[in-house]
Amino acid sequence: MEFNVVKETTYRVKSVWKTLQGEGLFAGRPAVFVRMVGCNLWSGYADTRERDAARTGANCPMWCDTDFTKEGSRAYTAAELAQEMRSVGGDVRFCVITGGEPLLHLKAELVEALHQAGFFIAIETNGTVSLQEACWNEEENRLEAPDWIVCSPKLPQEQLTLEYFDELKLVLPDYHPAKYSDFAQRQRLNEVQNNQLPLLWLQPEDGDRLHQATQMAINYALDNPEWRVSVQTHKILNVE
Ligand SMILES: C[S@@+](CC[C@H](N)C(=O)[O-])C[C@H]1O[C@@H](n2cnc3c(N)ncnc32)[C@H](O)[C@@H]1O
Ligand SMILES: Nc1nc2[nH]cc(C(=O)O)c2c(=O)[nH]1
Ligand code: SF4
Ligand SMILES: [Mg+2]
Q1: Is residue 30 part of a domain?
Q2: Nearest ligand to the C-alpha of residue 15?
Q3: Among this protein's residues, is 128 annotated catalytic?
Q4: Which whole-number Å values give the CA distances from 232 to 84, 204, 210, in the listed order?
Q5: 124 carries an active-site annotation
Q6: Is 52 labelled a binding residue?
Q7: Number of structural domains found in the chain
Q8: pTM of the predicted model, to two decimals?
Q9: Is the residue at 217 inside a domain?
Q10: Which ligand sits closest to the CA of 20?
Q11: Domain containing 167: what range?
Q12: pLDDT tens for each residue of 111-120
């Protein structure tokens, strides 16, 4: 007898947890976070920082504050992940998909499952992956995209393929606004923002250079008031 086994797509997830969104417009808002494994700009292992920074040309491998390695991760189907997120989140229906680089994983199928489970979906991305390519719904011939896109670029703007975003977050001192002026135009006008105000953030790099980076961010915003300073509030509140 022949069996036609259709293998379901699974998603490699480091962790699912309930916390407060720490950064950007939704700072302070209860959220279910999903951290996907792996990134295209750094392997995630400390001994490869310099090598990976030289290879990718991004500085973030030198100071990324996140463990997105595969150790302790789990594979979920879209339905299993939606269920786990409902179970972890209780009444929370705001989720943030991050990583690592979440657009290496996210597909229309998962976006659909999370929407069906009632979630408003935000993502945090480095801008190197096209939404069109990641989240195209082949059957219905349309884009099945997350609802809210936060982009924190680490490569020169000419190399970024992300078509649009809702918030732009540059980590200082390595990523200067002057180098992202064309890319900043890809911010979309959206209903949440009542089609107004650009959301342009300067986020000081946490680590040895935090003090210097914070001063830079403050001074730049005071001189260029379309930019705002983003504080990583979860680190102050001491939540994950
Ligand atoms: C860990 S990244 C994951 C998502 C995606 N790979 C990206 O870079 O946007 C999540 C956010 O943390 C920021 N980030 C990482 N390390 C940081 C640090 N040491 N200080 C401040 N922000 C940091 C990133 O710029 C990004 O906005
Ligand atoms: N609480 C909390 N808020 C966050 N906002 C963006 C984060 C990320 O790592 O993508 C993050 C995070 O790691 N924790
Ligand atoms: S900041 Fe984002 S892009 Fe850079 S290494 Fe960390 S997860 Fe990857
Ligand atoms: Mg973080």
Answers
A1: yes
A2: 2
A3: no
A4: 26, 9, 11
A5: yes
A6: no
A7: 1
A8: 0.97
A9: yes
A10: 2
A11: 10-237
A12: 999 999 999 9
